[in-house]
């Protein structure tokens, strides 16, 4: 089962991606306004209320969903956006529908979706005439895309699409401990935010990007020097992908004999927030989970790394390198700068509301 998630004409809510999914359950089909990483909105030309158009489309989502689900069994990693332009005639009947563009790479889904839209009927346009609508349907699987199955929950790698340009990668170590990272599709190529636990797991992610997204890897960013963030660096450096991090992280890596990582910002020179031409802002909020932890803000989400705990976390996890006295202030700085954004924490489920920031502060207060 997957999602058909058109970019709606009015807000309708997001399902919160989480790990793992409830046993035996798949989230219901959902419609949301701006799926993470998807730019643009549906457009209509002519005289018919946008809310009316949205309501009719919602009523037909099951048919479009079936177009996608029929192909998902054969390709569990299938996802993408199908942009359909259709014309509503004077009687309210759709008189034409065509594929404008698509990233799904599946002709059956594309043809089926266009044909389904062609059968729809809307209220008559006000004053007669026609209405032309461009509508992007975003298809994403409800289950993670498995890259390495591992064994009994260990050494596993999977990806969860957040729309069609942002992907959470999740890997488990030899003890079954899960960790999140991010793959971001930018205008110029692919960006890896934190590696998986091991080079082999990281190589599986890089190879998936090569084969499925068909874009070059333009860089990797490490958010602090721990194994769940940088354990797979050999795979990245071996491909000569540019790697960057805060100057404090670069120094820590060098002390461990890891060379070739460049400073993304200089905390010693007073750099706090730096906008990167690849489409994100890097922010150093001060010490917290580690002395060198940074966060990355994209248009659609905040990557909090291990500075931010998930809403499912019951404690602070590993605090061996933490500055517990400074951590709350660091979280508040992030909260002030990036309020009301979807948050990808270093571990645990993605938080669509930004509640993970407040939850982290409560855990810190509890630990005092």
* Rg calc: 22 Å
Strand content: 25-35%
- Identify the strand order in the major beta sheet: 6-7-8-9-10-11-12-13
Number of beta-strand segments? 18
- Low-confidence region ranges: 6-41
| Second rung of CATH, namely the architecture of the largest domain | 4-Layer Sandwich
Helix content: 25-40%
CATH H-tier superfamily of the largest domain = Ribonuclease Z/Hydroxyacylglutathione hydrolase-like
- What coarse outline follows from CA principal-axis ratios? elongated
Walkthrough of the structure:
There is one protein chain. The protein has 368 residues and is of the alpha+beta class. It has 2 domains: 140 residues, Fusion Protein Consisting Of Minor Coat Protein, Glycine Rich Linker, Tola, And A His Tag, Chain: A, Domain 2 (2-Layer Sandwich); 223 residues, Ribonuclease Z/Hydroxyacylglutathione hydrolase-like (Metallo-beta-lactamase, Chain A). 25% of the residues lie in helices and 27% in strands. It has 9 helices and 18 strands. The strands form 3 sheets. It has an 8-stranded mixed beta sheet with strand order 6-7-8-9-10-11-12-13. A hairpin with a 5-residue loop joins strand 8 and strand 9.
């Amino acid at each position: 089962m997957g999602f058909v998630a058109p970019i709606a004409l009015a807000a309708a809510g997001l399902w919160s991606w989480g790990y793992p999914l409830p046993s035996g359950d798949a989230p219901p089909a959902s419609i949301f306004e701006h799926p993470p990483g998807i730019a643009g909105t549906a457009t209509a030309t002519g005289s018919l209320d946008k809310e009316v158009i949205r309501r009719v489309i919602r009523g037909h989502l099951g048919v479009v969903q079936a177009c996608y689900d029929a192909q998902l069994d054969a390709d569990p990693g299938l996802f993408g956006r199908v942009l359909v332009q259709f014309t509503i005639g004077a009687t309210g009947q759709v008189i034409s529908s065509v594929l404008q563009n698509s990233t799904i790479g599946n002709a059956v889904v594309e043809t089926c979706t266009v044909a389904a839209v062609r059968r729809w009927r809307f209220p008559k346009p006000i004053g007669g005439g026609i209405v032309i609508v461009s509508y992007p349907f975003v298809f994403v699987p409800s289950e993670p895309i498995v890259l390495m199955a591992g064994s009994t929950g260990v050494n596993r790698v999977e990806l969860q699409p957040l729309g069609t340009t942002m992907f959470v990668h999740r890997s488990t170590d030899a003890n079954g401990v899960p960790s999140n990272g991010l793959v971001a599709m930018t205008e110029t190529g692919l960006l890896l935010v934190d590696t998986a636990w091991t080079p082999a797991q990281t190589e599986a992610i890089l190879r998936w990007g090569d084969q499925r997204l068909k874009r070059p890897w333009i860089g990797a960013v490490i958010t602090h020097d721990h194994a769940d963030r940088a354990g797979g660096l050999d795979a990245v450096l071996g491909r000569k992908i540019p790697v960057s991090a805060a100057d404090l992280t670069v120094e820590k890596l060098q002390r461990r004999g890891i060379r070739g990582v460049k400073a993304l910002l200089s905390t010693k020179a007073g750099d706090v927030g730096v906008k990167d031409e690849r489409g994100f802002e890097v922010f150093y909020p001060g010490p917290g989970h580690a002395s060198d932890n940074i966060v990355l803000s994209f248009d659609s989400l905040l990557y909090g790394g291990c500075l931010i705990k998930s809403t499912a976390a019951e404690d602070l996890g590993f605090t061996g390198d933490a500055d517990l006295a400074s951590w709350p202030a660091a979280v508040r700085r992030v909260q002030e700068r990036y309020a009301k954004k979807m948050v990808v924490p270093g571990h645990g489920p993605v938080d669509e509301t930004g509640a993970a920031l407040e939850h982290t502060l409560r855990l810190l207060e509890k630990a005092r």
